[in-house]
Amino acid sequence: MNIDQVKTVLELNRTRHFKKTAQTLFVTQSTISARLQSLEEELGCQLFDRTSRTIEITPAGEKFIGHAKSMLALWRRAKQEVHSEADESFRIAVGGLFVTWDIFILEWLECLQQDFPKISLTAESHDHSYLLRQLLDGALDLIFIYEPPKLTDVTSSKVMDLQLTLVSNKENQKLAQAMEGNYTQVNWGEQFLMEHNRALSGYNLPQKRVNQARIALNFLLSSGGSAFLPTQMTEKYIEEKRLFKVKGIKSFSLRIYAVYLKSGSNIGFVEKTLNYL
Predict the structure, then answer these.
(1) How far is the C-alpha of 261 from the C-alpha of 191, rounded, in Å?
(2) Residue 216 class from Cβ within 10 Å (0-12 exposed, 13-18 middle, 19+ buried)?
(3) In this predicted structure, which of 30-39, 88-97, 140-149, 212-221 has the lowest mean pLDDT?
(4) Alpha-carbon distance 72 to 4, whole Å?
């Protein structure tokens, strides 16, 4: 198995088209077919069902995709570290949920850049399961998530509490009006979902569901409606009277954690960076 085969599988899964995959990777279609066939023979299973018109991923292929993403991330990190002139002790790969970038990660990284000018940094945003898998696979040194895993080989420490408040583009709106109108439900994790459903069990299902607070905020500002959003994201718009707190519902508290491997090779620098939060 080689990295070109891994890239081919990932791109073919995205496009589901041999010609488009070949164009993206700047090779011929026959090369794509040969890479895939060689990899399938090595794995002893078929990754894609190919017919004359469609390409569908198999159950085995679905399982392989997650590993392929991790392998590609590790490969890219290895290339960065090999070619980097940065001091080994100033190297870190960080991942965070989408909302953490809006609230604190960008500012935190700026502080690190100022105090460690030669820092070698890899940073990305993704969902909870992907970030955790990348951490456990060694592709990331540190992640910021809502619900820390109950695993013996990781360390979790609280970073901050988010207060999620129901806001609307309409002033003096009551809960029933906000929920029956253009409500957007943000995916804030399992714990929030349970508390949310318990508190709002008498209302209809939300019209929109999104996994990023920024998307919900944009909906509210452009098209109106309501959503539970962190005070750090809404206070500016509340001051400008573009958003308003909805009456009759409490705020939900959500805790953000920093999570990293106890046995990580870079644990000393990882823990040092957390002092800047």
Answers:
(1) 23
(2) buried
(3) 88-97
(4) 10
Q: How far apart, in Å, are the Cα atoms of 83 and each of 79, 80, 124, 197?
A: 6, 5, 20, 50
- Matching CATH number, 161-254, of 3.40.710.10, 3.20.20.70, 3.40.190.10, 1.10.10.10: 3.40.190.10
Cα–Cα dist 25/212, whole Å:
30
Q: 198: burial class by Cβ within 10 Å (0-12, 13-18, 19+)? A: exposed
CA distance 232 to 271: 25
Nearest CA among 147, 174, 168 for reference residue 216: 168
Residue 201 sits at φ, ψ, to 5 deg, of: -65, -25
Q: What is the pTM of this model?
A: 0.70
Q: How crowded is residue 77: how many other Cβ atoms within 10 Å of its Cβ? A: 19
Provide, rounded to the nearest whole percent, the portion of the chain with pLDDT above 70.
95
SS (H, E, C) 18-35: HHHHHHHHCCCHHHHHHH
